[in-house]
Amino acid sequence: MTRVWPLPELQYRPLTDNHEARDVALVHSAAARAAVAERLASLRVVWSAEPAGAVESEWSRLAEECVGEVVYSVGGGLATDAAKYIAARRRLPLVCIPTALSVDAFFTWASGVRRDGCVHYIPTKAPDCVVVDFEVVAAAPPSVRAAGIGDVLSIATGSWDWRYAHERGANPEDAPYDVGADRIAAALLAEAVECAEAAGAGDEGGLRRLIDCLALEVQLCNLVGHSRPEEGSEHYFAYAAESVLGHGLPHGDLVGPGILVMAALQGQDTQSLRRALVACHTPLDTIPADVIEQTLRGLPQYCRAHDLPHGIAHDITDDMVSAAMSALPL
Ligand SMILES: [Zn+2]
Question: Could you give the angle at which helices 233-245 and 155-167 cross, rounded to 10 degrees?
Answer without folding.
Answer: 120
